[in-house]
């Protein structure tokens, strides 16, 4: 599991300005890091280019402000595919980092981990052959593509947000209660696809839409005709398979092709 790196930030003496800070990570951060202010004022990431493989690109409201950013060099993995920051952002009015924060980060991390553990169980059941070929779950997980990780991040985020909304509802937050079902519906729908199941939790003959991201040998539908032939009934009235440079596979059923 990746560990976040705390990176110190100080705004320049020129006051309100755009500036950059070398983050020292081996690669670009996995996601936009969370900035925690250690002085008055505000520092924020550039909305167009927040970072690259070398620098953070930032803005500051005042001169000589101090802060630190928690950055992941790679996805947190283990049983966490998303982060506290991304889950909390699903609730714009929820404030983290204040003395009265409720629920605390420890509970949110537990929720994210619980959802991630269920996802891991699905992955290990569904893609056992690919995991075995890779030499084990950790090795397979560490080699997942960015697209696969984006899918897992979304599922983890919506699942955790659905549970967090239920916590908010229990605290009397009716706004969160109104979106709890929507979040849970999205999570359940995505988890069904990860399982390769239909809405009745029965295996889909064609598999799940994400299968190819997790197993390169997964069954994949093709829009191309079998054997490069086209049924006569599918041809325009004035066209024969020969006109298309194709073999007349189904010509005996179509007098136009004979």
Explained architecture:
The protein has 258 residues and is α+β, with helices and mostly antiparallel strands. The chain folds into two domains: 1-74; 77-219, no CATH class. Helix content is 35%, strand content 12%. It contains seven helices and six strands, in the order ββββββααααααα. It has helices at 84-88, 105-126, 128-134, 137-142, 146-170, 174-195, 211-214, and strands at 5-10, 17-22, 34-37, 43-45, 55-60, 66-71. The strands form two sheets. It has a three-stranded antiparallel β-sheet with strand order 1-6-3, with no helix packed on it. Strands 2-5-4 form a three-stranded antiparallel β-sheet, with no helix packed on it. α5 packs antiparallel against α6. The longest helix is centred in the middle third of the chain and has 25 residues, at 146-170.
Write down how many β-strands occur, each being a DSSP E stretch of 2 or more residues.
6
Strand order of the largest sheet: 1-6-3
Number of helices: 7
- The low-pLDDT segments are none
Q: In total, how many domains does the architecture comprise?
A: 2
User: How far apart lie the N and C ends?
Assistant: 65 Å
Order of helices and strands: EEEEEEHHHHHHH
Radius of gyration: 25 Å
Backbone shape: globular
Reported for the largest beta sheet, the result is: 3 strands, antiparallel
Content of β-strand: 5-15%
- Helix and strand composition category: alpha+beta
Average pLDDT, rounded to a whole number, is 83
Helical content class: 25-40%
């Amino acid at each position: 599991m990746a560990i976040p790196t705390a990176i110190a930030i100080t705004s320049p003496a020129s006051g309100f300005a755009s500036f950059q800070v070398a983050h020292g990570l081996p690669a670009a951060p996995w996601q936009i890091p969370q900035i925690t202010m250690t002085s008055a004022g505000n520092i924020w990431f550039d909305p167009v280019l927040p970072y690259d493989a070398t620098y953070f690109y930032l803005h500051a409201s005042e001169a000589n402000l101090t802060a630190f950013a928690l950055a992941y060099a790679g996805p947190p993995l283990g049983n966490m595919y998303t982060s506290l920051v991304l889950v909390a952002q699903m609730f714009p009015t929820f404030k983290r980092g204040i003395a009265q924060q409720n629920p605390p980060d420890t509970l949110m991390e537990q929720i994210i981990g619980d959802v991630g553990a269920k996802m891991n169980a699905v992955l290990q059941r569904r893609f056992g052959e690919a995991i075995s070929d890779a030499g084990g779950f950790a090795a397979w997980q560490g080699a997942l593509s960015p697209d696969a990780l984006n899918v897992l991040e979304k599922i983890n985020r919506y699942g955790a947000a659905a549970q967090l909304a239920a916590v908010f509802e229990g605290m009397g937050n009716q706004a969160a209660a109104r979106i709890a079902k929507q979040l849970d519906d999205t999570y359940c729908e995505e988890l069904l696809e990860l399982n390769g199941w239909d809405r009745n939790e029965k295996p889909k003959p064609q598999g799940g839409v994400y299968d190819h991201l997790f197993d390169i040998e997964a069954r994949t539908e093709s829009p191309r005709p079998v054997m490069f032939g086209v049924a006569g009934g599918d041809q325009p009235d004035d066209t024969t398979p020969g006109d298309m440079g194709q073999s007349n596979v189904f010509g005996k059923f179509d007098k136009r092709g004979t």
